[in-house]
Amino acid sequence: MWHHHDLYLHLFNIPFFNFNQYTIMSDTKYDSVLVGWADDPKYNDNNELISWSVRLKDNELKDMLDQYVTRRDEQGRGGNVYVTLFMSKNGKACARVFNPNSEAAKEKREQKAAQNAQVAQDDLPF
User: What would the pLDDT profile of 11-54 be if each residue is shown by its tens digit?
Assistant: First the structure.
């Protein structure tokens, strides 16, 4: 079975880890986990970003489908896996996948539902 902490950043041999597995000395809750092998971005002659890639193995993709697919609603919307390519604070290329089951994601959904309920109440004519 694939574990996030078994992956290594392609160019720098830095171990990836699952934010939810470790105690971080912070109150920050994360809604994503680091994944894959991120290559450095490629730029054209004008120094404009032209491409960026992440490599995922078949077992990693299977785990993403098993763990990180968003729920489908009655209309069939959802069923997505969101992968984000980004630069770390150190300037290293990274990839992360949104974890809809994380505490941070659950809290964001609850906040959004509360805001939507308030808006619906504000639209009442009485």
Answer: 343 344 443 443 344 577 877 887 767 888 999 999 999 998 98
Dihedral sign from CA coordinates of 73, 74, 79, 84: negative
Percent of the chain that is helix, strand, coil (3-state, to 5): 30, 20, 50
Number of domains composing the chain: 1
What type of residue is 124? L
Between 55 and 124, name the one with better pLDDT.
55
Phi and psi (nearest 5°) for 62? -60, -45
- Residue 84: both structure tokens together: 């984000």
Which two tokens mark 69? 């697919």
Range of the domain at 99: 4-122
User: Smallest Cα–Cα separation from 38: which of 84, 69, 1?
Assistant: 84
d(C-alpha 29, C-alpha 34), whole Å? 14
CB 7 within 8 A of CB 13: no
